Amino acid sequence: MLFTATSLLASLYWALSCVPEVSAAFPDTPFTTDGRDIISASGEKVVFAGVNWPGQGMTMLPEGLQYNSIANITSFIKQDLGMNVIRLTYAIEMVDDYLGDSPNQSLKATLANALGEDDGATVLEQILDNNPQFTEETTRLEVFDAVAEEAARQEVWVLLDNHVSKAIWCCSHTDGNAWFGDEYFNVYNWQRGLGFMADHTKSWRALAAMSLRNELREATGSTTAEPYTWDTWLKNVIPAATGIHDNNSLPLIFFSGLNYDTDDSFMIDGTTTDDGASFEPSSYPFADKIVYEIHNYDNGATSCDDVRNYLYDNAYGAMNLSDPAHPNKGPVVMTEFGFNQEDGSSESIYAQCIQDVVLDAPGGPAGWMQWVISGSYYIREGTKDFEETWGILNHAWNGWRNETVVENYDLPFVDATWDE
């Protein structure tokens, strides 16, 4: 059979067009920002879809390890849910203890300190049974390293989130962690801690981003906190972000606003403070690393339009390239939202609206990270083995808390994020 040159070329073109596009090898970092998009090292657009894995509680350990292995928990996130990022939270107190050579850093010591000698010993044995790579002398930081290593093995990115200074449950106006200069919120230690973690995580292949601080809020009744203003915010967060970038230029830097990170308006609107200062992304050495993060827990919402409009004005307007009211363009990631998994809340106006807003964001979908993977906590607000009804996993971290919610909410949300 004879082929002309034209037919051969046509056949070759058809064959090549049928070859699926191959993405760059994980982790494809460092990421940068371009307008409203996050861009990988190979030039691909990146959209985060993931979950929060807390590690900032009294034990200062990633939760759930007394019930399951790091590998299995990560597998729930990546293999079963199909997510691509973990927001891993930590406390500055962990860094302070490391730099101060505290005797409470080992698994044995930190569990005894948080849970008491007897309960601490019991939980320690459970953790070691599930995670035999550890010993009782393994340190908190080494456990975080192990989570990051497993995330890389399963090709899940990590957003390392500074959640609190003192390792306690977050958040309230009176917990001492609320605002710069609050009882536990020592600004020097915080900035030092961010710089330390930026340097420490250079070996984490999975590291994609670091946050500055979770849910900044007014410190009600504090006699030591600085004024609750954007001026105070600006003078503290820019040196902190610079410290991250100077120590490790790889990660994106997530900026959170005021009022429990529900208000990013000052950042995206380009307005000036009472002192005449403004947020000027292009002037910073980390200009192409800035991501705006937003939280929303308007669980009692009766109108999606109200939720949508608020989120646009306070965050997602930054992704609308044609809206001059929000000139500081950049990607927006909803790093916290969530709801009770047991009472039908997944079908609420709020839960459905969050999906709509994120998927329909200008140039979207935008990124998101749900609160929370945890089925339980080592200890929370004084209660040991605390039940987390908002957790995607059950109390024992070995299955879903509500399979119907996973099938009808989480999996379709992940799929829609990739398919848009």
Keywords summarizing the entry:
single chain; 420 residues; alpha/beta; TIM Barrel; 8-stranded parallel barrel; 3-stranded antiparallel β-sheet; globular
User: Could you say what the CATH topology is called?
Assistant: TIM Barrel
Order of helices and strands: HEEEEHEHHHHEHEHEHEHEHEEEH
The CATH class, by name, is: Alpha Beta
Distance between the termini: 45 Å
Q: Give the total of domains.
A: 1
Find the CATH superfamily: Glycosidases
The CATH architecture: Alpha-Beta Barrel
Rounded average pLDDT: 95
> Counting H and I runs of at least 4 residues, what is the number of helices?
12
Overall 3D form: globular
Q: For the report, how would you describe the main beta sheet?
A: 8 strands, parallel, barrel
Strand order of the largest sheet: 4-5-6-7-8-9-10-11
Strand content: 5-15%
- Radius of gyration over C-alpha positions, nearest whole angstrom: 22 Å
How much helix, percentage-wise, in residues? Answer: 25-40%
